[in-house]
Design goal:
Layout: H1 2-29, E1 34-35, E2 38-49, E3 52-62, E4 65-66, E5 69-70, E6 75-83, E7 91-94, E8 113-115, H2 122-129, H3 133-144, H4 146-154, H5 163-173, H6 177-186, H7 191-200, H8 205-218, H9 232-244, H10 255-272, H11 274-330
Length: about 325
């Protein structure tokens, strides 16, 4: 009776734990921030005009979503722009590649505007007020990840950034200069969206302590305590993992990335732990022995069947011979 009564309690505890974990994960996924399937570096563009030399890094986001709803486009493209000769420019290009079509009062007759290098004029402020809530969320994501985007582009082996452009982008990403400058000039106009994003990247204490930090530690990507506290070490550990598997290193683990982290950590733990490897080898040897024994039994059964068939054939041949002899004697 006691054993029977213990089962429901144990089952309820396990179900409660599952529900809590699922809720904590889903609650972070459904926040009003940009979620995406993947980020691709498209390439670097550059040129000169009247003595001015520019460079831009182009990216594409696949399957963007705001919270739990899809964005109005299945993919969006955007660029961040700089001067090839000076550290004075840190711009985000606002264009219909990722926005709805707008008429810009700060740049009449043009399809795009470039903002982020300096304080905004009255007409530029007016242009920003046109943006929809979802477009502001995407702008905040680009601003918050601008240095990670630069790093991602410079480390992409498929699309090499020219040496002259690489030099300026390396300088712009040093000490987070690009992001700090664009946050200084645009941050106040996307304050709510940036605050929501900065908050969303911090996983709950429970998820950090029970899942993320232990997995990172087993992969030797995190040296800190498993305490469930968010900090720079945890953030850098997540980014190291994302880089190691070719993902955009924004420090935010999507549901699929969490599963990948778990599976990678468990695989490494399984095959790097001598005790577990020994158990695996022993289990494998036992299965081989069982299989060998089964084959031996089957072979013996086959031999017995063949022997029996041979005996039957011998008996049949004798019987045929006796019948033939009897017939000859009769005639």
């Amino acid at each position: 009776m006691n054993q029977i009564s213990k089962f429901p309690k144990k089952f309820i505890r396990q179900m409660t734990l599952t529900v809590v974990v699922t809720f904590l994960i889903c609650s972070s996924v459904l926040a009003d921030v940009l979620k995406l399937e993947n980020v691709l570096f498209v390439g670097e563009n550059n040129g000169s005009n009247r003595g001015y030399s520019w460079t831009q890094l182009e990216f594409r986001i696949q399957k963007p979503a705001i919270g739990n709803k899809s964005y109005f486009r299945s993919s969006i493209s955007f660029t961040i722009d700089a001067d090839r000769k000076r550290l004075a420019r840190t711009d985000l290009r606002f264009a219909r590649d990722w926005l709805q079509s707008y008429k810009w009062s700060s740049r009449p007759g043009k399809d795009d505007i470039y903002l982020g290098s300096g304080q905004l004029s009255a007409s530029q402020l007016s242009d920003l007020r046109q943006l929809s809530p979802d477009e502001k969320i995407i702008a905040a994501w680009i601003i918050a990840n601008s240095d990670e985007l630069i790093e991602f582009a410079l480390n992409d082996k498929r699309q090499a950034v020219p040496v002259a452009s690489r030099s300026i982008w390396n300088q712009l990403s040093k000490n987070d200069f690009f992001e700090k400058n664009i946050r200084k000039n645009l941050g106040r106009h996307f304050g709510t969206q940036l605050a929501n994003y900065d908050k969303s990247i911090k996983d709950s204490k429970f998820v950090l302590e029970k899942q993320i930090q232990p997995y990172l530690k087993s992969l030797k990507l995190y040296d800190g305590k498993i305490d469930g506290l968010w900090g720079e070490q945890t953030l850098q550990g997540i980014k190291k993992f994302e880089r190691s598997v070719g993902l955009f290193p924004d420090g935010v683990l999507t549901y699929k990335e969490r599963i990948l982290l778990r599976d990678t950590a468990q695989a490494v733990d399984k095959y790097s732990n001598p005790t577990k490897v020994k158990e695996l080898v022993e289990n494998l040897n036992e299965r081989i022995k069982d299989h060998t024994d089964m084959l031996r039994v089957e072979r013996e059964k086959s031999k017995a069947k063949l022997l029996k068939m041979s005996e039957l054939q011998t008996t049949l041949n004798k019987r045929i011979a006796e019948v033939s002899k009897a017939k000859r004697q009769t005639f």
